[in-house]
Amino acid sequence: MAKPLRFGLVVGERSGDILGAGLIQAIKQRHPDAQFEGIGGELMMAQGFDSWFDQERLAVMGLIEPLKRLPELLRIRKQLFQRFTANPPDVFIGVDSPDFNLDLELKLRKHGIKTVHYVSPSVWAWRQGRIKKIARAVDLMLTLLPFEASFYRQHNVPVKFVGHPLADELAPVDDIQAVRQRLALPCDEVPLVALLPGSREAEVRLVGPVMWQAALQALRQQPQLRFVVPAANAARLAQIKQQLAGHPDLPITVVQGQSTQVMAAANAVVMASGTTTLEALLLGKPMVVAYRMAPLSYAILARLVKSKYISLPNLLADKPLVPELIQDAATPEALAEQLLRILQPGEQQVLKQEFSAIRQQLSLNASQEAAKAVLELVN
């Protein structure tokens, strides 16, 4: 009898755990006896994954925290390398976490182990020199977005665009009133605007006050407007409520979490740049994207970033589909003006048609496509 297929996987974040679990499930549909081991989260372990280390040990962010944890991270990576080379898997798959996984993939590939990287780093936007290392490190790159695949083809890196898992899950909601009722939001026909200032302390500190002022200015022109803010966690909830204490007359509801449901309930969204812009697109919600950061950080990033746009809707459309108000351009006046514009029925209809076309492009059943590509590499 043939030996069961063995797959090594390393996942460092919750989002990667979701992708890894979907990939395992899809591979098991074709090879029920397949084995999976390395580092994964609860969702992957529920699929029978053997995790050698706690996934949370890899979940570090920022510039200082990874340096503090560097000895431990290097020790974990060394032990992974030793175990995988001692008993090589048919394929090693690094899911996101490029700073950790690409070095491991590079070393494993030099030892004759086939390697896949699932979720492209933003090499197309900045630090494009990384493409040379990626070309040496991977036998196959799996991308969630089509323009990423085009970039890799231009640099002769084997690549497969598999679609985005969010596009397989999210679609416009028909009964907005039912969603509003579940969230205890205004259920009549008043226009509801979702305000998403970000999930990090610095984002809310820099972007939040601009959004509240913009809401007040828009309210002067359309007094029937109502607003809702989903706070990412308890800390952001307290921070947002403290900021809003200075605006007692603003008709705004603050809820903890449930950002996807909040956007589904809204007529339009004003939001910080991030993955949530893709969620808003898939839900068919017109949006204004605003972002501010510390002046020094912005000055550095402005020199490094090569892409024309920062929001995923514009990157996917390769045109200014939604307004992007960045740094000094993100003023309350500009946000209010753009918000009132996208609330107009004609603007909403055009945007929803564009968003629908992009959603169809991204909805490919990503886990199944990724599994198919990995198994083709094995064979």
Keywords:
379 residues, alpha/beta, Rossmann fold, 2 domains, seven-stranded parallel beta sheet, six-stranded parallel beta sheet, 13 strands, 16% strand, lipid-A-disaccharide synthase activity
Could you explain the architecture of this structure?
The chain is of the alpha/beta class and about 375 residues long. The protein has 2 domains: about 5-165 and about 365-379, Rossmann fold (3-Layer(aba) Sandwich); about 175-360, Glycogen Phosphorylase B (Rossmann fold), CATH 3.40.50.2000. The chain is about 50% helix and about 15% strand. It has 18 helices and 13 strands. The protein has helices at about 15-30, 40-45, 65-70, 70-85, 100-110, 130-135, 145-155, 165-170, 175-180, 200-220, 235-245, 260-265, 275-280, 295-305, 310-315, 330-340, 345-360, 365-379, and strands at about 5-10, 35-40, 50-55, 90-95, 115-120, 140-145, 160, 190-195, 225-230, 250-255, 270, 285-290, 325. The strands form 2 sheets. Strands 3-2-1-4-5-6-7 form a 7-stranded parallel β-sheet, with helices on both faces. It has a 6-stranded parallel β-sheet with strand order 10-9-8-11-12-13, with helices on both faces. Helix 11 links the parallel strand 9 (about 225-230) and strand 10 (about 250-255). Helix 10 (about 200-220) crosses helix 11 and helix 10 (about 200-220) packs across helix 16 (about 330-340). The longest helix is centred in the middle third of the chain and has 21 residues, at about 200-220. It is elongated and about 70 Å long.
